[in-house]
Design a protein that fits this description.
The structure is a single chain. With about 425 residues, the protein is mostly helical. The chain is about 80% helix and about 0% strand. The chain has 2 domains: about 350 residues, Up-down Bundle (Growth Hormone, Chain: A), CATH 1.20.1250; about 45 residues. It is globular, with a radius of gyration of 20 Å.
Length: about 425
């Protein structure tokens, strides 16, 4: 199997991991009708996955760097397929949330392994940037196609059908790592650091979702514990050189996913409960978002290989802000979603390529885990927070616009300080 075909297979495996961050959103009304639960319960049907996924991404990258990317990738993909098969017959909302949390852990292992394998298969920066473009095209398609596939599957077999497409995709993804051997690394893993990171994210998400001041205090305490343990650790979750070089990308990734996932959640409920669209019709309404996120990352990969990541990230954030502002202030949802999709398709591939390129040797999995952890933190908070605003899309647009300015100013300084 050629390296290009292997990269495509690796991207296919992660396609299904990211598909599960959005495919269930369109099925929320059907889940509520079948399993019951409040709005907060619906949010946790989504966040049960994204919280565990985000909290485990750092350790997933570290495990891949320590034990070998190919081995960790295979374990993660196989577990993802098995757990998906168990989610389909879940008898209660609590069981579904718990299984979705385990699914998030498996997805984090899959991501850490896949990014490590791409770095291994494409050691030259220009080739790696192009491979990231292919990878991002597949994963961007997953984010955008989630609502469409979700709507089709819910119409055919209810929300349970959304999990049955994962095991076959997992089997195909495993072909990408067949015969590949990755060397073990020397990087240690500090489990106390990882546990404190998980505690912080979980308590923060629940505090925001449940509007609980007590859990807000718990989240603050968990953050203090994480910082304290991280600073004393001989094997920190975020190596200092990586954090100094990549903090603008981490912030940009968090904000981009905050805006995207929060807007997707709000629009889905608006289309189904406000405009009374059927699930498949609501899913198809997101089709203008899909094409740019499927095709444009290939161009973005070439741009990053030639000019670097800064311009595509900045431009992507500006387009994201413009698209969300259009959706908030006009009735032209289709054109606004096209602009939003273009912004995301410039931003996401460049974020990954830029962070992996800046990573110290032997930490590609950790670097990928860091940027994707930031993205998933943003996604979790976006779903939890934006629903509480009177004009959530405009809030998301304003945040993306401010972040574009901050990123443009901060990225050059961060590179100079790190180099």
């Amino acid at each position: 199997m050629t390296s290009r075909l292997r990269s495509l297979s690796l991207a296919l495996a992660y396609f299904l991991v990211l598909l599960d961050t959005t495919v269930l959103t369109i099925a929320l009304p059907d889940i509520r009708a079948t399993l019951g639960g409040s709005l907060a319960g619906q949010q946790w049907a989504v966040n049960g996955y994204t919280v565990a996924f985000a909290a485990s991404l750092l350790v997933g990258g570290a495990v891949a760097d320590r034990y070998g990317a190919a081995r960790v990738f295979r374990v993660g993909v196989a577990a993802f397929g098995l757990l998906s098969a168990l989610c389909a017959p879940a008898p209660a909302l609590g069981a579904l949330v718990a299984l979705r949390a385990l699914l998030g852990v498996a997805g984090a292992l899959c991501l850490g392994g896949s990014l490590g394998l791409i770095a291994q298969l494409h050691p030259r920066p220009q080739e790696r940037a192009r491979a990231m473009g292919v990878w991002a095209a597949m994963t961007g398609s997953a984010l955008a196609l989630g609502p469409i596939l979700g709507g089709l599957l819910v119409d055919v077999g209810g929300w349970r059908a959304t999990f049955l497409i994962n095991p076959p995709l997992a089997a195909l993804g495993l072909l990408g790592a067949r015969g590949v051997v990755s060397p073990r690394g020397l990087r240690r893993i500090d489990w106390a650091v990882q546990a404190s990171a998980c505690a912080f994210l979980a308590s923060l998400a629940q505090a925001v979702t449940g509007r609980s001041p007590l859990l807000g205090v718990v989240a603050a305490a968990a953050l203090v514990a994480f910082v304290a343990v991280e600073r004393r650790s001989q094997a920190p979750a975020l190596p200092g050189g990586l954090l100094r070089a990549a903090w603008p990308e981490l912030v940009a990734g968090a904000v981009a996913n905050f805006a995207f996932s929060g807007a997707l959640f709000v629009l889905t409920l608006t289309l189904q409960e406000g405009r009374h669209l059927a699930p498949v019709a609501a899913g198809l309404a997101f089709l203008p978002l899909t094409l740019p996120m499927t095709v444009n990352p290939l161009l973005t990969g070439r741009l990053v290989a030639r000019y670097g990541a800064r311009a595509p990230i900045t431009g992507g954030l500006v387009l994201l802000a413009a698209g969300l502002a259009g959706a908030a202030r006009t009735d032209l949802l289709g054109p606004s979603l096209v602009v939003t999709g273009l912004g995301l398709s410039f931003c996401f591939p460049a974020l990954l390529a830029g962070v992996v390129a800046a990573a110290p040797p032997g930490t590609a999995g950790t670097a990928g885990g860091a940027v994707n952890a930031a993205r998933q933190v943003g996604a979790t908070l976006g779903v939890a927070v934006l629903g509480g605003f009177g004009d959530p899309l405009l809030v998301a647009a304003g945040l993306a616009a401010v972040t574009a300015v901050v990123y443009a100013a901060g990225s050059a300084r961060a590179r100079a300080a790190a180099g």
